[in-house]
Amino acid sequence: MLLEDIVKKILQARVYEAARETPISPTPSLSKRFSNQILIKREDLQPVFSFKIRGAYNKMAQLDEAQKAKGVIAASAGNHAQGLAMAARQMGVKAVIVMPRVTPEIKVQAVRGWGARVVLKGDAFGEALAHAKELIDEHGYTYIPPYDDNDVIAGQGTVGMEILRQHSGPLDAVFVPVGGGGLLAGVAAYIKYLRPETKVFGVEAEDSACLKAALEAGERVTLDQVGVFAEGVAVAQIGEAPFEILRHHVDGVITVNTDEMCAAVKDIFDDTRAVSETSGALSLAGLKKYIQQTQVRDQTLLCINSGANINFDRLQHVAERTELGEQREAILAVQIPERPGSFKQFCRVIGRRMVTEFNYRYADPDGAHIFVGVQVKPGGEDRAEVIRRLREADYPVEDLTDNELAKLHIRHLGGGRPRERFEEEVYRFEFPERPGALMNFLTHLPADWNISLFHYRNHGAAYGRVLVGLQMPNGDRAHAEKHFDRIGYRYWKETDNTAYRLFMA
């Protein structure tokens, strides 16, 4: 009965006063490469470059005049904020959007461009939401949720309605990105009601897989932490209303990592010339993984490009990780003899493969540690073959292809070593990108600690990745993380990481 009610709401949804019916794009290159017909639903072509306008407008269309007169409010880090701001301007309603201070400037300016008032509060969504609730109590604003509401779900569900209307032929599976679950719930409800034989899969980032955790537990759970690389789906708990639908009407959840998302961004660009945000490319990454896991051929598979609100500066990082996401590059730490001709001999052993990166600095008269990238064929077998050949030639090898520290920092620092031996503890942090973040970190460190290493790289995201080496009195080492917990930034201890030990210790 719930499914039928949602489908009726979808059919009655008022979205086309603001949203567009977006096309489905073919992908000739991808389809040929994966031996399936792969289609992309282009929600990046909406006026706010995201599907979120559908749910926001439909929810506002259900408000009475008294609610509209009070004005509307939302807490959002981006796409929902833009959708609501546009909907409010079109209806002549005052809109207030509370955004975390770390929200990318492109999204802040876009919301202001639609005429909404932006309030920047806190370093995370939870703090922004709490402040939004305070403003509701103070001013009586009407809250417009981003996903946890049946009218919002119905608005997003019009994407599914368009898919079945535009593509009347065979449709084996549809892949939908998951944050709070509103889009997936609406699409799944409509497709499963009309075409139950079509499989519907949710796709989540590995470090924010709240739906996967809820389905495994049989109830909604809250993740302790969520990753922010795909900020559009960085949600700690699946919505209550979406979960009531999804627990019965999805065929599974696929999780993907950062490199796989970056590769999908490139795939979308290659076939459509659209520049997707990482959460927008999430569903294509899941579609590709599904093909690899099931080895299906000659099927029709569709994914949703849910948005294109990406900081231009972030594209550098996306491009850097793309080859790894396609499994076309292996990152290796190799020890070679410290003598003339060693690199040439090393290249002979790896064969006719392109060396994509080579970092080295003289450190030892007998042996040299090199950080090397090697172009390989997708699938993993070729990478294993490279490592096998090197070890047969008596080269000590460590595979760092899946080592996050190596890919984020060591590749830019390889060869930098202290002149004398000393003890340090090494930690990796995520700093919020805002003034005062570094000073907040330094202020919480004891005065007798010495920073022996500091590497930071801006990726155009809400959080900066920082690597820090610290010299501290022996008695403080066991209690160091108590200081970090008080700071409140995410961190990982990396003192025993192989990449650090080989290139920097």
TrEMBL record:
Keyword set, alphabetical order: Amino-acid biosynthesis, Branched-chain amino acid biosynthesis, Isoleucine biosynthesis, Lyase, Pyridoxal phosphate, Repeat
Enzyme kind, highest EC tier: lyase
Chemical reaction(s) catalysed: L-threonine = 2-oxobutanoate + NH4(+)
Recorded metabolic or biological pathway in which this protein acts: Amino-acid biosynthesis; L-isoleucine biosynthesis; 2-oxobutanoate from L-threonine: step 1/1
SUPFAM superfamilies given in the database record: ACT-like, Tryptophan synthase beta subunit-like PLP-dependent enzymes
InterPro entries on file: ACT-like_dom_sf, Ser/Thr_Dehydratase, Ser/Thr_deHydtase_PyrdxlP-BS, TD_ACT-like, TD_ACT-like_sf, Thr_deHydtase_biosynth, TrpB-like_PALP, TrpB-like_PALP_sf
Residue span(s) of domain ACT-like: 330-402, 425-496
Gene3D superfamilies: 3.40.50.1100, Biosynthetic Threonine Deaminase, Domain 3
Pfam families, per database record: PALP, Thr_dehydrat_C
Subunit structure: Homotetramer.
NCBIfam families for this protein: ilvA_2Cterm, PRK09224.1, PRK12483.1
UniProt cross-references to PANTHER family, sorted A to Z: THREONINE DEHYDRATASE, MITOCHONDRIAL (PTHR48078:SF11), THREONINE DEHYDRATASE, MITOCHONDRIAL-RELATED (PTHR48078)
Family: Belongs to the serine/threonine dehydratase family.
Function: Catalyzes the anaerobic formation of alpha-ketobutyrate and ammonia from threonine in a two-step reaction. The first step involved a dehydration of threonine and a production of enamine intermediates (aminocrotonate), which tautomerizes to its imine form (iminobutyrate). Both intermediates are unstable and short-lived. The second step is the nonenzymatic hydrolysis of the enamine/imine intermediates to form 2-ketobutyrate and free ammonia. In the low water environment of the cell, the second step is accelerated by RidA.
Name of the protein in question: L-threonine dehydratase
Organism: Salinicola rhizosphaerae
Gene name for this UniProt entry: ilvA1
